[in-house]
Amino acid sequence: MKKQLDTRRRLYTLCILVRDIPGVLSQVARLFSRKGYNIESIVSGETDRPGITRITIGILADQGMIEQIAAQCSKLLPVTAVKILDEDTSIRREIALVKVGAADRNARDEVIQLANIFRAKVIDVSRESLTLGIFGSNSKITALIGMLTDYGILEIAKTGTIAIERGRSTIYDDNKLKEEYDYGKHVL
To answer: Which domains does the chain have, with CATH numbers?
Structure first.
């Protein structure tokens, strides 16, 4: 009996460990492009292991699509580990900088009160604007931005989603190091 796959699209988070070599990020992104998948969010940064970079990708997909792209990513030579993070057992966060118009003292005070409610930080203050920094879930950042629209948003800069599993689980679990099974790929 064939396994029934969920065909509903939702936002998945895919974490990939790669060797830190030139062009590896574009190689991973090209794989998504070739398959016709749109990347909603992509973040790349160093890890606790020298020479290894963590790429976190948000993708709108169904279960079959995400499993296929994870399998394809794991076949790339620089990739050492791939993990699809479960929404219920992972932590996801973003960072946003939001510059808001604040023409008078009352507007500045109201924006500062909103910042306090959302635990955002006032990063910069001028006579005509305030810049807030916020760290949190996508829904928290979206809610703050929604509240700030009345004051006139001048500019927004957002990161993509970073994510990590809760508890003791890590990306290293259930993933062999690439060197353990990379034999034969360098043969012409």
So the answer is: 10-85 (3.30.70.260), 92-162 (3.30.70.1150)
